[in-house]
Write a structure and sequence with these properties.
It is a single chain. The protein is about 60% helix and about 5% strand. It is built from 25 helices and eleven strands. The strands form three sheets. Strands 6, 7, 8, 9 and 10 form a five-stranded antiparallel beta sheet that branches. It has a four-stranded antiparallel beta sheet with strand order 2-3-1-4, sandwiched between helices. A hairpin with a 5-residue loop joins strand 8 and strand 9. The protein starts with a helix and ends with a helix. About 50% of the residues are buried.
């Protein structure tokens, strides 16, 4: 591996014009594809294998004109104080608004509040239901404008008008903090390298990689049914790993220059050693992201695969474009320890470096002397941060989780005020009576059985289809959609369905957005353990090959579990309990997004292994070349701690930049990943890992002889390069043969 990458790095350095043109051409091609691609619609949200999805599919089949997947909206009206919606003037205003709404080209139906009994008991609140032929993200902008403008005359007449539903669903905005995150990354790179040219390379290559990845996603979005969140995740992950991978190679290049090697040779050795670590770190991230497909939720699978593709591009760019740019930069990228004149640095002498060990060396020396104390402190600290995770409540966001400044949230609150909290999350019961001798009697019995259950406010009469063999019944719970009592009600109805089927021959299914959210949460919970086994197992085998050790990969996996649990605890504390919510712009607290645990497991595991590979390969490299286990830890930190610290700060800054998103899911993901990187990089990898290695000593690098013979020798630490001279006149021919 190291020898092949060594040759690849030298070839990219020599043929830099060709390499640069190739990546520019790919970026241009992806950009043209994105610009000419049709506008992507809303990604279809299906949950195969769930009862809610089965009922949804049955509705499509038995009620073909129902537009079951069409967008919906509720236009909510509230009368001024002391007046009622049944007053003649207000009634005329609302009816005119309903007529205006009905004129839309994409509108399937509009329900008049007065004909549909959609007026509250006290007469102060009413709502009109709007059904569209297409999904929320497929709506024309003109339809959204017509929806928002429809209530203008009613507002002018003194009514309060708010609009809820997925018809107003829009692409999330990330805000200015994303740019701030990139600016922080730039500052950290300048401080790390002491050179504007060297600092600019990781940023440039990361932007090119993300540009190619996101443009490709945009170009294929319509064909592959990709949603807007897919490109946001790819941007988030692609920027973070793209900067980090380039950072490690440029840092190793500067270290090789400091040892007096010619620039081409330094590039080859940097790509051969640090590049090997980049390849395996990238593989762990790709495994973790592609592994999300085991959950069998198409939307999550597409997000993971698209992000994995962006990571793969980041790896290829780091191995080829970075060496090419180093060739262009020439002497403007200086050896390690030497700053550019602009930043006021001279190069420290060898004596000065020996007299002043860097912070990484001093910290590692301290940990090696006090490993047990550092280990206990790190484990106890992460354990304390993980305590809130025991109170984790899962759910999917609805209009009730929107900020109070939005019309969707205000409409949600008005409906709760006028009709009860459960009105915002009604359950749809689908009764399939094809196997029943008396379908009408079966419909009646289902309604009667549900009325007798706890937490039920309203059960509407059954609405059969034209064939009379299937009917829908709407059930309004007494509790809000994202609550334990509502979830218990869904399970209670499903428990009753077996009894009803045996009595009547009719099958009872529960669906609707509330039931779908409950099924998604359950499916994600059920998939978490298999996903952990798959991803951690594959990465464990990969790390055995990289480190040629059993205990080092095991320690890496256990450390990851500590950091991800602590990060989940922090997410619960902020987004569920409300700690520091105002500081982070979290306007509404509530259940944590259902996919957050499994998503964090996947992404954080991949990123955690990045730091493990980059830091510990330096230690193994020192150990393989004759240093004692304790000294190897110190050597690894002397060369790697500064760079790993910079990489972690950059990754935290990029992720934290997405906390400014208007979409609660993106905000939560950004915070969760940023805090997870902090825990993993600075507590697990910088404290717990060296402490464990110091305690284990030589045992850390033990591998059974039979396994050592069976495993391929990938030579991540570049042992094969030590025997090479500084010249390689036949490098290109050797690369062709390799």
């Amino acid at each position: 591996m190291a020898t092949f990458l060594y040759k690849l790095g030298r070839l990219a350095f020599r043929r830099r014009h060709f390499v640069a043109l190739l990546w520019v051409a790919l970026l241009t091609l992806a950009g043209v594809g994105a610009a000419s691609a049709p506008t992507a619609g809303n990604t279809s949200f299906s949950i195969p294998g769930t009862e809610a999805q089965k009922a949804f599919d049955l509705l499509e089949q038995r009620f073909p004109g129902m537009s079951a997947d069409g967008a919906t909206a509720r236009v909510v009206f509230k009368a001024p104080a002391g007046e009622k919606m049944t007053d003649a003037a207000h009634k005329a205003t609302v009816e005119k608004t309903v007529r205006e709404l009905s004129d839309g080209s994409e509108v399937a139906s509009v329900t008049d509040p007065y004909e549909g009994r959609a007026v509250s008991k006290d007469g102060t609140i009413a709502y009109a239901s709007v059904k569209y032929d297409v999904s929320g993200m497929e709506l024309e902008e003109s339809s959204r404008e017509a929806l928002t403008e429809a209530g203008k005359e009613a507002r002018d007449a003194g009514l309060t008008v708010e609009i809820g539903g997925d018809a107003l669903q829009a692409t999330p905005e990330t805000g200015a903090t994303e740019i701030i995150g990139i600016a922080v990354a730039a500052v950290v790179l300048v401080i790390t390298f002491g050179s504007l040219i060297a600092a600019g390379m990781p940023l440039l290559t990361a932007i090119v990689g993300v540009g190619i990845g996101v443009s490709s996603i945009t170009a294929l979005a319509s064909t592959l049914d990709l949603g807007s969140t897919t490109s946001t995740l790819a941007t988030m992950i692609g920027l973070a790993v793209g900067i980090d991978y380039a950072l490690f190679i440029v840092s190793r290049y500067r270290a090789e220059l400091a040892e007096g090697r010619p620039r081409e040779e330094a590039v080859g050795r940097a790509v051969g050693t640090a590049g090997s670590a980049v390849v395996f770190a990238g593989l762990t991230v790709v495994i973790a992201l592609v592994g999300l497909s085991v959950v069998n939720i198409p939307m999550l699978t597409k997000m993971g695969v698209a992000a994995a593709g962006t990571v793969a591009i980041a790896v290829l760019i780091a191995l080829t474009m970075v060496p090419a740019l180093l060739g262009y930069a020439g002497r403007k990228v200086r050896p390690a320890g030497e700053k550019s004149r602009l930043l006021g640095g001279g190069r420290a002498t060898s004596a000065e470096k020996a007299a002043k060990p860097n912070l990484g060396t001093r910290w590692a020396s301290f940990v090696v002397r006090r490993p047990l104390a550092v280990l206990l402190l790190g484990v106890i600290g992460l354990g304390a941060a993980a305590v809130p995770a025991a109170s984790l409540e899962l759910g999917l966001p609805d209009d009730g989780s929107q900020p109070t400044s939005t019309t969707q949230r205000r409409a949600y609150d008005l409906l709760s005020e006028g009709f009860g909290p459960g009105f915002n999350g009604p359950l749809m019961i689908v009764v399939d009576a094809q196997g029943s001798d008396d379908p009408q009697a079966a419909f009646t019995e289902v309604g009667d059985e549900i009325k007798g259950l706890k937490d039920v406010v309203t059960v509407t009469p059954a609405a059969p289809n034209k064939a009379g063999d299937t009917a829908t019944i709407t059930v309004v719970p007494d509790s809000k959609p994202s609550s334990v009592p509502t979830e218990d009600l869904v399970h209670a109805i499903r428990d009753k369905s077996a009894e009803i089927t045996s009595d009547t021959g009719a099958e009872v299914l529960v669906t609707g957005s509330t039931a779908m959210n409950i099924d998604v949460s359950q499916k994600l919970n059920d998939a978490l353990i298999p996903y952990l086994i798959l991803v951690v197992g594959l990465a464990f085998l990969l790390l055995i090959v990289v480190f040629r050790s059993i205990l080092v990969p095991l320690k890496a996996a256990l450390g990851f579990l500590l950091s991800v649990t602590a990060a989940l605890g922090a997410v619960v504390a902020v987004f569920q309990w409300g700690w520091l919510a105002g500081l982070l712009g979290v306007e509404e607290t509530g259940p944590v997004m259902s996919m957050m645990p499994i998503f964090m497991v996947g992404v954080v595991f991949g990123l955690a292994m990045d730091y493990e590979v980059f830091l510990v390969t330096r230690m193994r490299e020192a150990y393989v070349h004759g240093e004692s286990p304790g000294q190897a830890v110190v050597t690894g930190f002397r060369h790697g701690a500064r760079v790993v610290t910079a990489a972690a700060v950059i990754m935290m800054a990029v992720f934290a930049g997405f906390i400014g998103s208007s979409e609660s899911m993106i905000k939560m993901i950004g915070f969760g990943l940023a805090i997870a990187v902090f825990f993993d990089a600075f507590v697990v990898r910088m404290a717990i890992v060296p402490a464990v290695l110091a305690l284990l000593g030589k045992k850390a690098w033990w591998l059974p002889k039979w396994l050592d013979r069976a495993l391929p020798n990938v030579d991540v630490e570049g042992a094969g390069l030590r025997s090479r001279g500084d010249r390689d006149p036949d490098g290109e021919r050797e690369l062709a043969r390799a």
